[in-house]
Every structure is written in C-alpha cells, then in structure tokens.
Amino acid sequence: MAEYCQGCSTKVFGDDLEELAGMISPALFSEGYGLFTVCEGCGPVVVDHNGRRVEVANLNG
C-alpha cells in the first residue's frame, strides 16, 4: 500500500490523508525522535507525529 507524507499527500490528493500520522507519539517527537519511513512521493524520510516530513538535523540526538 502506498503511503504519503503530509506534504506529498496534499500535493497528490489535494488534502492530507494522514497516512503517516500517529506512527510516533507527540511525546517522543518532543524528545527529539522521528520516524524513519518511506513516502511514495519523496522516498526515504523522517516524519513527525503528524506525518509531516522533518529534517534529521532538526531532531535532537
């Protein structure tokens, strides 16, 4: 099944389908963690708790 980050979902479907949202908790993200996954639109990415692509340099650790 194809899954898209928030940005690609909005570009492809015109709306955020939240396919990668909720895969990491807000608490873990606030501690500096992100989820490494694959977006069908932009490839390997790290996403936050909302499914939004984030830069690895912006994470703690």
Strand count: 3
Please estimate the helix content. Answer: 10-25%
* Overall radius of gyration: 11 Å
Helices, by number, come to 2
Helix and strand run: HHEEE
Count of the domains? 1
* Binned strand content: 15-25%
For the biggest sheet, the summary is: 3 strands, antiparallel
Strand order of the largest sheet: 1-2-3
| CA-CA gap between termini | 31 Å
Low-confidence spans: none
Mean pLDDT: 93
Q: How would you sum up the global shape? A: globular
Structural class computed from helices and strand pairing:
alpha+beta
Q: Can you walk me through this structure?
A:
This protein is α+β, with helices and mostly antiparallel strands. It has one domain (6-58). It is built from two helices and three strands. It has helices at 6-13, 26-30, and strands spanning 35-39, 43-47, 53-54. Strands 1-2-3 form a three-stranded antiparallel β-sheet. The radius of gyration is 11 Å and the shape is globular. The model has no long low-confidence stretch (mean pLDDT 93).
Q: What keyword list fits this structure?
A:
21% helix; single chain; 3-stranded antiparallel β-sheet
Topology:
Layout: H1 6-13, H2 26-30, E1 35-39, E2 43-47, E3 53-54
Antiparallel strand pairs: 1-2, 2-3
Short description:
With 61 residues, this protein is an alpha+beta fold. It has helices at 6-13, 26-30, and strands spanning 35-39, 43-47, 53-54.
